[in-house]
Amino acid sequence: FGDEDLGSDWYIYESTESAAPSDDIFPGSVPECHPTISPRMYHACMAPISLAVTLALSLLAKRRRLRPRCWNGVPGFLSFPEEEASRAPAAAVFGILFTSLCQLVLDRDPLPLASPSSPSAREFWKILALLYYPAFYWPLLACAGSRHRLGYLAGTLLAWGHCLVHVWHKVQCPLQPKIHRLYSLLSHVPTMLSLLLLSLWYPALLGRSLRGDSPEREIPGSGYCREYLKAVLSKRGRKGSSVKFKESLRSRIRSYLRSYIYTPEEGFRIPLKLVVSVTVAVIAVYQVALLLLVAFVPTIQIVRAGMTKDVVVLLVQFGLVPSDNPAVPGDMEKELRTVRHYLWSLEVCYISSLALCCLLTCARLLRTLATHRSNLRALYRGAALEVFSKPRVLRPSREAVVCWISFASFQAAFACLGLLIQQVIFFLCSVAFTFLVVIPLQAGTGSMLFGIMRNMWPFWLALVVAVLLQHLLAHFQFLEQHSRWKELTNRRALSAVAFLLFPTNVLVGVLAGAWRVVISGLYNAVHLCQLDSSLLQRRAETFDPGYRTYCHFLRVEVSQGHPMVRAFCFLLLQRPEPPAPPRDTHLEEGLQLMRHKQAAPGRARIRRIRARWWVAYTLLHNPSLAASRKSALPDPANGARLGIPKP
């Protein structure tokens, strides 16, 4: 016999049955597709344009404190957009950047402008690409922060250019021979959706600016602070019933499910960094789930379609597949169907566990939004002990700034790692349950698990009886019921029972320890993506890098983005209305009111009294602002005091 005939009998992809089309089974059979606009040409054209837009936008953001006499200031960087309508585009740009990172890790040409010649050079280009892609997509975010019509026009052109090129690539080459023929198309779905959002949002913003509907002179973020002040200083109190009724099981389940759905509240807004982190984490879950799906399911389908009787004979000889007569192989049709059924069960277990992991991870990420809101509300009113285990100074530090920078990146990385660990755990558990319980029950045959349970039933019965006996003795013999409490009794008998049941409780403790390992592993795997809670106890929570990053992130957000402090700053930045008597425009309004010794007549005096009462009410409900007020007004002559000012 020739070598080709001998090898063809054992080729795993051959099947005696009608096989599926080659494109459905073999991803590598998809031919290479070269679009009209190659990725190198696309980046070679768009990179200079992005650089020019970045330089042009930097001229719009003048740094007035540096060289004010030379060209009205030195060009500077643009900050993140802080308007309510700009939060979705900011999250979209970060989503595009993270999708590019996923493509960068798996692509052979990480930097489209250069082709690597060796694996070592490829790793070097990957490092450069980590810096290239943020600079490449930065103008899409910077145009929103310019608050200028030219910035909106540049953002419109850039978004249209990126969107058209990406859509044209996927229309010309929808199938790619990378991992799976549909992986390239499906992995670019977040990018195309984000670019489509930017392509619609920038023209709408430009149209509003041309019509004059968008006030470009308004200070960014002042609208939210105004709403927050209205909500805090509102005279309407929250009416709540003092009578507490016992909730039913259905109402408790409903309230628990509602806690996973974030509902916006009037007068409060989640910071932009948290919105970006949750959005990027959801995209990370999608990318990792897609990669896990296309890497396993097509492979197991190929193996199932190419399963032959020769391979089944080997599996029967090794005892992996049950057979009526394993010593003398026969037709093997029944065994072949059994093997294919096993492979199909593996596929079902894998897809089910992956879907469950995605649902759990997304549910925990949505749950974090409500936790973020409650923590920020507590820190805004100065209740640091409701959030942290020990008192913390809400001031920025070197480590806090570093944690603020890396918070969104940590959230995405923890979500990816948590999904991978969950998939491994739930897949192994589902496979064990399927092959040890479900399949033996379907086939009506014995299982190794059932055999162990049947042979060790006296042991299990003894443990169950020992546990029940201890509970019954504790309830009827060792506890004496009084009018309002229970008291311990029969202490000698209690000591004797503890001594007699010590060996049995050791075995019970072994089972309890195994259950503790399993439940702690499941809990930590599910909550790994949640940075607002530590996976360690309170004394060791500083060793949790995710929770430590979250705590420092809150310190920076509260100290630098407190709505009360920002509202006060916005009041100082507003242009004062010219009153009848002349006054010094360089002084703050609050200082002018305090230095003015003559009583203000009529409405002015009423406004001043009302303002002082508002300040007292604000400081009463936000004690953390007292330190900021003292540092802002250190001179006792200007009215600063250690306590809350008296109205």
UniProtKB/TrEMBL annotation:
<keyword id="KW-0675">Receptor</keyword>
<dbReference type="GO" id="GO:0071939">
    <property type="term" value="P:vitamin A import into cell"/>
</dbReference>
<feature type="region of interest" description="Disordered">
    <location>
        <begin position="628"/>
        <end position="647"/>
    </location>
</feature>
<keyword id="KW-0812">Transmembrane</keyword>
<feature type="transmembrane region" description="Helical">
    <location>
        <begin position="431"/>
        <end position="452"/>
    </location>
</feature>
<dbReference type="Pfam" id="PF14752">
    <property type="entry name" value="RBP_receptor"/>
</dbReference>
<feature type="transmembrane region" description="Helical">
    <location>
        <begin position="41"/>
        <end position="61"/>
    </location>
</feature>
<dbReference type="GO" id="GO:0034632">
    <property type="term" value="F:retinol transmembrane transporter activity"/>
</dbReference>
<dbReference type="GO" id="GO:0019841">
    <property type="term" value="F:retinol binding"/>
</dbReference>
<dbReference type="GO" id="GO:0016918">
    <property type="term" value="F:retinal binding"/>
</dbReference>
<keyword id="KW-0845">Vitamin A</keyword>
<feature type="transmembrane region" description="Helical">
    <location>
        <begin position="342"/>
        <end position="366"/>
    </location>
</feature>
<feature type="transmembrane region" description="Helical">
    <location>
        <begin position="459"/>
        <end position="478"/>
    </location>
</feature>
<keyword id="KW-0472">Membrane</keyword>
<dbReference type="GO" id="GO:0005886">
    <property type="term" value="C:plasma membrane"/>
</dbReference>
<keyword id="KW-0683">Retinol-binding</keyword>
<keyword id="KW-0813">Transport</keyword>
<keyword id="KW-1003">Cell membrane</keyword>
<dbReference type="InterPro" id="IPR026612">
    <property type="entry name" value="STRA6-like"/>
</dbReference>
<feature type="transmembrane region" description="Helical">
    <location>
        <begin position="400"/>
        <end position="425"/>
    </location>
</feature>
<dbReference type="GO" id="GO:0038023">
    <property type="term" value="F:signaling receptor activity"/>
</dbReference>
<feature type="transmembrane region" description="Helical">
    <location>
        <begin position="493"/>
        <end position="515"/>
    </location>
</feature>
<keyword id="KW-1133">Transmembrane helix</keyword>
<feature type="transmembrane region" description="Helical">
    <location>
        <begin position="181"/>
        <end position="202"/>
    </location>
</feature>
<feature type="transmembrane region" description="Helical">
    <location>
        <begin position="274"/>
        <end position="297"/>
    </location>
</feature>
<protein>
    <recommendedName>
        <fullName>Receptor for retinol uptake STRA6</fullName>
    </recommendedName>
</protein>
